[in-house]
Amino acid sequence: MAGWVALIAALVGAMAGTLSTYLTLRPKLTLELEYAYDRTLRDKRIDAYQRLFYVTRHFPRFYLEDERPTGSDLRQCRQELHDWYFNRDAGGMFLTAAAKRSFLELQNHIAGLAFVDGRPRDDGGDQISPEEGDQLIALGRRLRHQLVADIGSANTARISGTRPGPPLDPPRSILRARQD
């Protein structure tokens, strides 16, 4: 009888140990897998966002009077953005929902300035208006800030998810006086 009690106690102990190991190890392994996935995604996103950030050079902090883009320039910018989105590295696949919205708003605005009824706008090589330039700059700035927020590069170390502060305005001394 004592042998049966010892055997049952050993079986119950083994089952309890197995259950305990399963219940503690499973969440840990799940967390480690999620961490590895997040880290891989973040690394790929950083690479893709660096390339997109470079493309946004066409939308600087401000345009000087003779630097505003023409319709031809805008079509070229639109194509660069399109190529980034659908390139072999699939940059567009790594955009967060907020970054994708900012990206598409910029693309749509460029298309509205550069095309009419699906055809290139005939602007005779004229630059866009200062107001249209301001809108492009604002949309480019919004996209860049979202990219920075998504990867956390403007965050204080070990604090994630905070949005960078507002950008500084360009110096008024170099901008053309605008009448409101």
> Mean pLDDT score, rounded?
83
Integer tally of domains: 1
Which shape, going by the Cα principal axes? elongated
- List the strand order in the largest sheet: 1-2
The percent range for helix content is 55-70%
CA-to-CA gap between the ends? 99 Å
Largest sheet: 2 strands, antiparallel
- State the secondary-structure class: mainly alpha
Taking Cα atoms only, what radius of gyration do you get, to the nearest Å?
Answer: 27 Å
Give the SSE order as H and E letters: HHHEEH
- Count all strands and give the number: 2
Number of helices: 4
How much of the sequence is in beta strands?
A: under 5%
Unreliable residue runs: none
Question: SSE layout and pairings?
Answer:
Elements lengths: L1 H54 L15 H15 L11 H18 E2 L2 E2 L9 H22 L29
Antiparallel strand pairs: 1-2
Overview of this structure, please?
The chain has one domain. The radius of gyration is 27 Å and the shape is elongated. The protein is mainly alpha-helical and 180 residues long.
In short, what is this structure?
By secondary structure, this protein is mostly helical. Helices cover 61% and strands 2% of the residues. The longest helix has 54 residues, at 2-55.
Which terms summarize this structure?
180 residues; mainly alpha; two-stranded antiparallel ribbon; 2 strands; 61% helix; 2% strand; elongated
